[in-house]
Amino acid sequence: MAVLIKNGFVIDPANDMQMQLDVLLENGLVTTVQSSIEPPLECSVFDASGCIVCPGLIDMHVHCFPGGSSLGIDPDKYCLPRGVTTVVDAGSAGAKSFSKFLAYCKTRKTRIFSLLHVSRVGLETAGCATADLPGELESIDDVNEDECLECAKANPDTIVGMKIRLSENIAKQGHNEAEALRRALLITEKIKLPLMVHYSFSTLPHKGVGEELGVPGSLRNGDILTHMYHGFQSTIIDPSTKSIDPVVLESKENGVKFDIGHGMGSFSWTVAELAIKTGNLWPDTISTDLHTESMDGPAYDLTTVMTKLLHLGMPLFDVIKAVTFTPAKLINREKMIGSLTPGAIADVTVMKLVDCDLMLEDCQMHMRNIKQRLIPVAAWRAGERVKIFEPWGTWPNVSESYQCHQSRERTLLHIRPD
Ligand SMILES: [Zn+2]
């Protein structure tokens, strides 16, 4: 049946559009976007007065492979009911586990794409519950070019890029980091896909000297640095000057994209404020890094992470672009999703921007007073209405056990507020 979304304020960055318009969905596609559309016969009408209507939200960094790692969440419970119609799984599966991952995706309603992990084991051993197990780069033999290429070529509908994590404790005390990155750059060059890099407790510098590799210095146009605002050892902020490292801005100029990847430890209000103040560095894509350790807070869901960026001063139009058109383009799916262009898949999210007065935490339990909050109201995936609900008990989560869990992270914070 056709769906007519009436009287909403449409924000569609792909078409540089922000005005009150009606949106008609027919046969699973967006067919018309204009003012005052008369409903056709056999049509359900949704009144979006006072709401924002935008393309279905895309979360560029989640972990949605429950059988494949202890981090995995069910996207039909934690993403789709929060207005997120598409998620990109960031490396939960490697070549070894990919067929199992694909089988799981087919059972979900949420549209799922994958950044294939360069290590064949994916994130099998990642996560707090498995902290004593060896990391995915413990053996460099697990990063196998032929296996990655074969897997990516066999699954072009799902694999939209590759993922690597650079941290010394998962790479034989850092010993394998440089070689793993060298292989990852080579593999993604061959298949012409972007590489998403997690770079937190790494032994690699921001920019290598000569042949030496660095992050983001060695990344290329279209590659993605995730966890951009973390405050750990490999932070983009120089703790001695409290300013952004110029290499980071140079990379931005070269086309490297920056992703939030909030997670349980990777979003610091202080780092975000310093990166914006000293480098005007805003995210290209806003993502949750939703997993079992971040879903009940401090990330919660995509609209909460978007709320944090709004609080930091990012314009609403740019916030919406960072969860629609930009991620769609980065994964080369901009004709299909991420816009309300007639002919695109009928993924639509309706949100409200509501006034509030709440203290909202970062990953180190530092608080900011939030005065406005984005919340999902309704969504359609390929023209089919999605049920919106809150999977957690309270928001924000101020339970004692949660604060205790988060306080561990405080000891890791590299940059402290003044
Ligand atoms: Zn992640």
From TrEMBL:
Transmembrane segments: none annotated. The lineage of its organism: Eukaryota, Metazoa, Porifera, Demospongiae, Heteroscleromorpha. This is Amidohydrolase-related domain-containing protein. SUPFAM superfamilies: Composite domain of metallo-dependent hydrolases, Metallo-dependent hydrolases. The gene is 100632126. Residues 52-384 form the Amidohydrolase-related domain. InterPro entries: Amidohydro-rel, Deacetylase_Atu3266-like, Metal-dep_hydrolase_composite, Metal_Hydrolase. GO terms for molecular function: deacetylase activity; hydrolase activity, acting on carbon-nitrogen (but not peptide) bonds. Pfam families: Amidohydro_1. It comes from Amphimedon queenslandica (Sponge).
